[in-house]
Here is the input.
Amino acid sequence: MRTSICLSTGAALGCALLLGHTASRAQVPQSFAPRYVTAASVRDVMAAIIDPAADEVWEAVSFTDGVDGTTSTAPRTDEDWKRVRRGALALIEGANLLLMPGRRVAQPGEGSAAPGDELHPDEIAVLIRKDPRAWSNMTDALRRAADEALRAIDARDSDRLFDVGERIEIACESCHTRFWYPNQRLPPGYGAPGGQ
Ligand code: HEC
Here is the structure.
């Protein structure tokens, strides 16, 4: 593969010229160790990036049943599509952020918001350390669903975008029930056939 040959020779400049249209990708020579800080916790990334980004995507298309039948909303203007596209991109890259080594689950001193139902951040960290593959697979599921949303957006296909919204929600919930509230006590009837 041309890209890997270029990286292994470390001749970034010459390769950037050779690679033509791929040259605009960031080329990182192997001898250079990039520095980054993980200031935000997983909880912060959820609240600041992933949750608002998911809202942009979910709220872009909706169907509401009323007395006059079903009304729907969907992105119409270029600006509407741009906004929801930003949401999908933030979800994709937000999923990547969850994989960065050194990111803590919550800030020092923060505890569980609902002890008994939601694990303490230290317990979540233990679960992630025990099964990093499951954590990685779940971020992957979110990234892939968000990537599908991006493709629906680029095709300006609001029906497909609506359907993908459910896949995104499943990706959120699968990870939350595994790593955040595995001991959640469900209200009676919840999850039962015919229940909610
Ligand atoms: C790979 C796992 C994973 C995925 C995928 C994931 N989350 Fe989370 N999320 C967590 C964990 C772990 C916590 C609990 C962190 C804590 O507060 O200790 C959390 C917490 C949250 C919180 C609470 C933040 C706060 O301020 O207390 C929100 C909101 C949230 N997630 C939304 C989402 C949404 C929306 C999605 C999908 C679009 C999503 N999450 C996908 C792991 C995940």
Observations:
- The longest helix spans residues 132-154.
